[in-house]
Amino acid sequence: EAEVAQSPRYKITEKSQAVAFWCDPISGHATLYWYRQILGQGPELLVQFQDESVVDDSQLPKDRFSAERLKGVDSTLKIQPAELGDSAMYLCASSLRGKNNEQFFGPGTRLTVL
Amino acid sequence: AQSVTQLGSHVSVSEGALVLLRCNYSSSVPPYLFWYVQYPNQGLQLLLKYTTGATLVKGINGFEAEFKKSETSFHLTKPSAHMSDAAEYFCAVTQGGKLIFGQGTELSVKP
Lengths: 114, 111
What we know:
The complex is a heterodimer. Chain A is mainly beta.
């Protein structure tokens, strides 16, 4: 069964360091989403890609966060510099074009900033 | 703007008892509604969704939910809880093509 892959699964870093997360969506899924889930809360959309283009990054803290999907397949989310408040689960999801209501989620990357 | 409220951050039931997780939404247009389950340190898995048509929606693992427009509710139920149902459950609504999640309800199942 096709799945969304994410790595690493866990990341511990010190504040002011740079971190990067990787996501490989289900093959053929044109739309890719990055969510942040703070402990005890629901996921919040950070950025949405359609192929290689950003269609929504209104909640992305652009002073320290960046995301790219250069070839319209896999994607990287970067934080530089990391802050204590960035500790969270970062979830990647993907969907077929036009099927935003059918998102498939990866296992997530648990980030701890010390 | 659409929003979702889940009543009760933690629900505890005995094995074999009825599970009821509450979700109310606010939406100015007919909503698409979802329930997801999340096991510890894992991603979200879709349990069921309501888009159009029948208001009683059946999902995986014996769960179902009923869309009640008059009450703006989409409560999740299961007749008999299993130990394996212990997890976090999220209700969500779509807004402009993106998912808006509730705060989540942690379900505990006692033997």
